Amino acid sequence: MQFTTTDATATAIETDCLVAGLGEAGLSGPLSDIDKASDGLLSRLHESGDLPQKASQTVLLHAVPGIKAARLLVVGLGKAEKLDGAAFDKAVKAAGKALRQSRATSAHCLLADHEVTDRASDWKVRQAGIALAYADYVYSATKKPKDDAPPATDTVSFPAGEGVEQQLGLAEAIAAGVQRARDLADLPPNICTPAYLAEIAEKMAAEHDGLEVEILEQEAMEKLEMNALLAVAVGSANRPRLIRLSWKGGKDSDAPLAMVGKGVTFDTGGISIKPRDLMEQMKFDMGGAAATIGAMEAVARLKLPMNIEGVVAAVENMPDGKAYRPGDVITAMNGKTIEVHNTDAEGRMILADALTWTERLNPDTTVDLATLTGACVVALGHHASAVMTQDDELAEELLSAGQRSADRTWRLPLWDDYQEQIDSPFADMKNIGGMPAGSITAGCFLSRFAEGQRWAHIDIAGAAWQWGKPESGTGRPVGMLVDWMVDRAGGWDVLG
Ligand code: BES
Ligand code: MN
Ligand code: ZN
Known about the structure:
Layout: E1 2-6, E2 17-23, H1 29-37, H2 41-47, E3 58-62, E4 71-78, H3 85-101, E5 106-109, H4 121-135, E6 155-159, H5 164-186, H6 194-207, E7 211-216, H7 218-223, H8 227-233, E8 241-248, E9 257-267, H9 287-302, E10 307-317, E11 329-331, E12 337-339, H10 347-359, E13 365-370, H11 374-380, E14 385-388, H12 392-404, E15 409-411, E16 429-430, H13 438-447, E17 455-459, E18 465-466, E19 472-473, H14 478-489
Parallel strand pairs: 1-6, 2-4, 2-5, 5-6, 9-10, 9-13, 12-16, 13-17, 14-15
Antiparallel strand pairs: 3-4, 7-8, 8-10, 11-12, 14-17, 18-19
The structure holds ligand BES, manganese (II) ion (MN) and zinc ion.
Ligand BES is lined by residues 267, 285, 342, 344-347, 371-375, 377, 432, 438, 461.
């Protein structure tokens, strides 16, 4: 999807589809103009209840008299006082979905002109672009669309205005990062292997000046004694990779921000095997890797004036004659010993060594991203990523980035009180902490591999993918991560 701007008015613009919002207060702005041009058609439809009544409902009209657009898509925006950033994002996505169904290949978007309670105009334009591109996504890697399937919306224009073009450029960059993450998450585990993730990172580095890649294979990891990561990897015929994408947008001497992604390309649970029902969902267990790679794609496209490291630990968790087993004690790269109680708690094993390795890059701040615990889905559902950190200031940075980007995060405590749940008589820790606070004890485990670092753990087990209609990756939390990094770089104004 490409974005343009135009000075044409709502009634004069020639496009396949005009997209306009209708709040509870009734017809206003461009919809009033169209109403006049159509001799009161919209007023009559509004009166008879045939225009959207509720937020995010859509109605598609054809051949509206008095306008040049072939279609008019009206999306409900609800009560003015309830139209905040998150509600706006939801409404634009609903409009985008209906737009794709409409068969229009060009559109003109009027939604950013509406008052949104907590947002400025730059944000509205940028977010509308991101959300429309999001809604236009259809998976096609292993299922070709039918000949009569609705086509993609190629171009969307916005009313010209100060900064509009620039915001749309930023939206395209971020949307590309989100799309990258979704593509990777949606791919089946027989295609999206650790080697495949490495290949994608290499391709990205070849495409973008300033983006560099380093890949560690098994032998290199053995030399570094990344035994916790390798313990998980050893049961699979798909060899592991440690992938590092580096964006050099700052001064050489600037400490980078680092992201570390869990890239379990398939999680059977290993010897502690998962039940057969819904096991196919564990192809999304590389959602943290997908978000890391997607965020690096956006960073490179935005040419962020900052140094960023994206590290991915890519493995497959399989049961096998060589697989690690409950009872094993593994010495991690940082010398700490781990008693394995459940081979299905594999994400924290691989992240442990990935965090130790990342510390050597001397980051200013490290955030890890992982579909780490089912307990996180129980706690927050699919609506928020869980942030865990002992650093209140960093928590605030990540919570407000989530709020700003409509890619929300919520904090869970990482108090020392929980640490004793992972005590073990045979090792420095065990890899599970029992039923209570399962997401937090996973965070406690990781905290032991990030000591002395400015670090946060982000559990994206719910946010990274959605159930049904269709089941797919969401590309989250690329939006939040990009917002956070842009903020750390000095804000949107520093981008060209
Ligand atoms: N990848 C899963 C977590 C997961 C579950 C993500 C459901 C998304 C949806 C993770 O590796 C796992 O299996 N975690 C276990 C931990 C347990 C053994 C302590 C879990 O959550 O059951
Ligand atoms: Mn698991
Ligand atoms: Zn897992």
